[in-house]
Design a protein that fits this description.
alpha/beta; globular; hydrolase; Ribonucl_H; RNaseH_sf; exonuclease
Length: 549
């Protein structure tokens, strides 16, 4: 993200303090005594950059059997941690890593600070029973203000968040462009959270959302390590189905290497079971497998769409298809061996598959028969799959936009330009391409060129097909033709609303501007004086001290 001089100065103010990013992996206590830490990582962010100096990573024995459901998430087993030391041995080092003057603690959701505090409380309880070997406890935990990166994006109005109060780490990384190749590993998650925090603060500085870190902390209101205030989660009404333990165990060995035909077939069989159960781990499995196996798995996975008939199953399957496309696309980090969907066939493939996707059984609006993306409040892949397909087709082999590429291939008056050639057969995809070009050009600080691209897209009516493009178009219309005209356009677009969160952002934009117009009109109304003795005497005007005498 490009910052102006003023924005960069503000970013320096926002990052003047040290941030300590905490992440843990844990398992539940079978006796119901909270959760027990298995691994813990602390990653510092100094001067707006993630650094290795001061980084800490430890693995430990939780003192209880590792729950199979936890094993399915992070991979630790009871046998693997049996010979490791307990938390009490590492507690002094953990507290020492957190003892940094004027630091801020960062975690993704409040669960990390919750389990850390509970472990320290157990040390206090051991000391209270006379255990002299316990050197530290909760009292030695430094009092640090807390930033929760799962709720911070909503506060900063990060594009793509929409109405979601809480976002997952995977979603946050996707929104801000951070790679996390080893999800659910404490060190990798801490580093990814640190990188995402820097991107969020860059966004805050570029938008001039807060003039100081203290103002952001006050508005964020997540408390301190001694008095944490957990967020009020905005939960979906949908009830996620219970995935059997025997299925979760099958996720122990993800396909992260170039698989043999037998291994790829076993992966597809697991995918079939995941789709049937609407398992939330299928997307992660697809992301991990995509780098080395995307091209081999893609077509067989898509072919399963013809076999699914129950609500939520098509969305689960298409979420994995989207993950294969995204994780193996040009420009992915690390680079993929071969893209799952080549840019040369992307739109032809989509033209063939789109009718089948649109005819597939949608997720239920409530209940457990919904896909994982719907449970989490994301856009259902049935509604959003065109986006990664369009990105592949637009970005091409290089995997990025350039001014030359936009001029020579995407926009222009010639018939072979994609803005002209795609519009009749792929109008929604052309609209998404126009939004990508507009956003890229604005980030390049070429506002006049961006407005020209927007005008071309609006002349073709593309802003009525894509909510992201509609939002920037409504802003332009409000500035030139007034809020009423912008509201008409927004209303037309919202009439075709899907589960795509961009529709939430468009509706929120309209609400904000309506409220601002009401407030402005109210301020312009003549004031009624109810206490005449307290009113300014008629005709009296306070002198302006800045006028020349």
């Amino acid at each position: 993200m490009t910052l102006t001089d003023a924005g960069f100065e503000l970013f320096q103010h926002l990052t003047a303090r040290t941030f300590l990013v905490l992440d843990t992996e844990y398992t539940r206590d079978p006796d119901g005594d909270g959760d027990r830490i298995i691994s813990l990582a602390i990653t510092p962010v100094v001067g707006g950059k993630r650094v290795r100096d001061g980084e800490l990573y430890v693995e430990m024995n939780p003192g209880v059997p590792v729950d199979p459901r936890s094993t399915a998430v992070h991979g630790f087993t009871t046998e693997a941690v049996a010979r490791k030391r307990r938390f009490g041995y590492y507690a002094p080092a953990v507290l020492d890593a957190l003892t940094v003057p004027d630091a801020v603690l960062v975690c993704h959701t409040g669960s990390d600070i919750r389990v850390l505090r509970r472990e320290l409380e157990r040390l206090d309880e051991a000391r209270a029973t006379g255990d002299a070997t316990v050197p530290v406890g909760l009292e030695q935990l430094p009092e640090l203000p807390i930033i929760d990166t799962s709720t911070l994006p909503r506060l900063l109005r990060l594009p793509g968040v929409g109405q979601r109060g809480v976002v997952s780490l995977a979603t946050l990384c996707q929104l801000v462009g951070v790679a996390n190749a080893e999800a659910h590993h404490a060190r990798a998650d801490a580093r990814a959270t640190a990188d995402a925090l820097v991107k969020l603060l860059l966004h805050a500085a570029g938008a001039f959302a807060y003039d100081s870190l203290e103002a952001l902390l006050e508005d964020h209101a997540r408390g301190t390590t001694h008095d944490p205030k957990l967020p009020g989660y905005i939960r979906s009404r949908r009830e996620a189905p219970v995935v059997p333990t025997e299925h979760l165990v099958r996720h122990d060995s993800p396909l992260t290497h170039a698989g043999t035909p037998a291994e790829q077939q076993a992966w597809l069989e697991l995918a079939v079971e995941c789709v049937r159960l609407r398992c939330p781990h299928l997307r992660t499995e697809a992301t991990l497998a995509a780098q080395e196996n995307g091209a081999a798995l893609f077509d067989p996975l898509v072919a399963l769409l013809a076999t699914v008939t129950e609500p939520g199953q098509a969305g689960t399957l298409l979420g994995a298809v989207a993950a294969l496309i995204t994780a193996s696309s040009p420009g992915a980090d690390p680079p993929a061996a071969a893209p799952a969907l080549a840019h040369t066939r992307a739109l032809r493939w989509w033209a063939k598959q789109r009718p089948q996707v649109e005819a597939s059984t949608p997720c239920e609006p409530s209940g457990s028969r919904s896909c994982p993306d719907c449970w989490e409040g994301h856009g259902c892949p049935r509604d959003t799959l065109y986006q990664p397909v369009t990105r592949i087709a637009v970005l091409g082999e290089q995997g990025r936009l350039t001014k030359t590429g936009i001029r020579d291939r995407l926009f222009g008056k010639r018939e072979d330009r994609r803005i002209n050639r795609w519009s009749p057969t792929h109008p929604r995809e052309t609209a998404y391409m126009a939004w990508m070009v507009f956003t890229f050009t604005v980030e390049e600080d070429r506002v006049l060129a961006a407005n020209d691209y927007l005008a071309v897209a609006m002349s073709k009516g593309l802003h009525l097909l894509e909510p992201r493009l509609a939002r920037v178009a409504c802003q332009s219309i409000a500035e030139t033709r007034g809020l009423t005209a912008a509201k008409e356009v927004a209303g037309t677009v919202l009439a075709g609303r899907t589960t795509d969160p961009a529709y939430d952002e468009l509706e929120l934009w309209m609400t904000w501007h309506e409220q601002a117009a009401v407030a402005t009109a109210r301020a312009q109304q003549p004031r009624t004086i109810t206490h005449r003795r307290l009113a300014r005497p008629e005709g009296r005007v306070n002198p302006n001290p800045y006028l020349p005498r």
